[in-house]
Amino acid sequence: MHTTAGGPTDSPQYGDHVDLRDGRFYGPVSLGPACAHPASGPDVLSALPVAPVGFTGRERELESLLRGLRPPDDTGATGSTLLWAVTGLGGIGKTALALRAAHAARHEGWFTGGILFLDLAGYDDTPVSPARAVASLLYALGVGGAHLPSEEVDQHALYLSRLATLADEGKRVLLLFDNVCETGQLPPLLPGSDAHRVVFTSRESHPSLPARELSLGPLCPSDSTALIAEALRLREEGDERLEREAESLRELTGLCGHMPLALQIAAALLRHHRSRGRVASLVTELRSGTHLTDTLHSRGVDQYGRPLALAPVFEASVRRLPAGRSRALCLMAQVPCADYDTDTAAVITGLPGRQALDVLDDLACAHLVTRDLPGDDVRERWHIHDLVRSYACALAAADPQLGAAARTARARVRRHYHRQAADRDRHLPAPVHDPSPAAVRRRDAALAWFDGEHANLVAAVLWPDDDDPEVRVSLALHLAGYLRWRRFFEDWIAVGRTARPLAHRMGDERAEAAVCNHLGSALSRGGPADEAIEPLTHAAHLYHRTGDPRGEGMAWNNLGLAQRRSGEVGLALTTHVRARHRFRDLGDRWNEGRAQHNIGLALDAGGRHAEAATAFGRACELHRGHDRIYHGDSLNSLGWALYTAGRTQEAIAALQESLRIRQEYDNWYATGLTGSNLARTLEAAGRSREAAEARALADEACARAGTRAVVYGHHH
Fold first, then answer.
1. pTM, whole model, 2 decimals?
2. Domain locations in the chain?
3. Which residues form a coiled coil (predicted)?
């Protein structure tokens, strides 16, 4: 426990109790002589622990806290909130922010009655009791020895009296309490006057207290880099690693989760291993460790005497959790999702929804998970900091029962996601045969769900285990339409490459054919197109062997696209014609239209623009009134072919109709593509104003799609 107030320091009287345990000071501190005449009133000046060295970031939080500490103005206002709480995960920088604000307030002269700092040691084995805290504060206020009442109730009354006297004299006092754990530690220490201010730090939220809470999260990447850079410059002003290894430094801050304590440990390791040179070496060491929280530790202590180690900090927080909460945290940490909605968290923990929400609330109050409330239309989500996840996984690794429970939890979550994806995949927009408002709402809701769970759904297929091959393959197939629609080709390829051997080991040739078809389609669009030919050829073979002519035709259609993108234009044309004949024989007008459209693409790629326009026109006829999305696609291709053939006015009409259709659907890539093509065509026609409008529309759509209009040619 560390208590500070102001004025010259005298040694405590020989009769005063001094408690030294493990090299830490737990006794009261009097930073002025014991008051011989209590009636004369306290004399308190300001003294704080040293200001945090290398403090970076937190501008918004610091401004908010200083605004709360600032004296009231001359308008008669009574001032702001008496009690301020700075909360957050252990090691997130709470004490540093509170001390930075206290030093700034002292510099401004806002607390003429003094600043008292007390470490309540809430997360140590022996937290400071309110009675001990009051006694220490009285010493700081100049009351000691024979003048200290023997009864706790009298000490508390005298403490409040001293603060009241200072308030009556117009002397404001700032009380700064560090490491509050139990709500009951604080109320006996609060002043009876609203002239004073109280700031406390805690790893937990305390909603029962009437406090304004500042909840701290990780630093932003630039502030994280600045923190390490400043620490290195303190050791050696011209440390060349800051510029020479800027990329490794950014990677290091990411591994530290932008958490101040972890960043300080990393800086200490870099200083300690100065002779080893490279920041990249530390990055490699951290990546190769089993658990980051075990690797991120350094010898020595920080400027406040605290060990440079993460695990003890997290251990103290987890130890205080109510029963069952640490188990839930370990299970959630071992299900490698980016984040969780409440339903998914309930599936992981195996608890009913209401109980799961209670557990999540407790974990959020302990700042071991973070609640994200994005808005009224989106459900709350829950995040685990990467370093907390690492620590919880290390805990689980030492407990075979938790490891087995986590494996079961992963299986439950995968099946949960599979059910959800299968239900929503039915409502995605390709093909769209039902343009009714109700169908559009279902499609929009399905897309929104896939958008929110995108990373988790892909991860559920990729988790490196051999469990649930049927579910993983089926989930990969239900993801394909969404990943294609949003053009997440890298994820589509990764999912396909993972699912293919699973389907083969299952011996399910129909599933293997579908997976190979999707994998080849993804590779032809977002990977090396020549790598798509083998899986698509294999898919066509499997579809033929299992008696699925429609599937075989779809594989041929996709194979033709891969052949065209690989430069085999003549071969692609032959393959698409073959697919068209197969669909025509089946009476499948929709797929015939797709094959017809692809024939046009092959003709256009071969420079046969007039023939391509005819082919696209036929595709428009097949899709008109049957599938509005593919009708828009064919109109876009028709417009470009007409433009290339010099039939500019016809091209403009086709592209304008395509743009109207594409704007109806949540496909920004397609809207940007058609807008870009229309802008070029209008420019060629000398219609500059309309071309500029089309270009602006294309730029906006491209920005939303995450690309640029200048790279949009015709189907590249």
1. 0.80
2. 3-215, 221-312, 321-398, 627-716
3. none
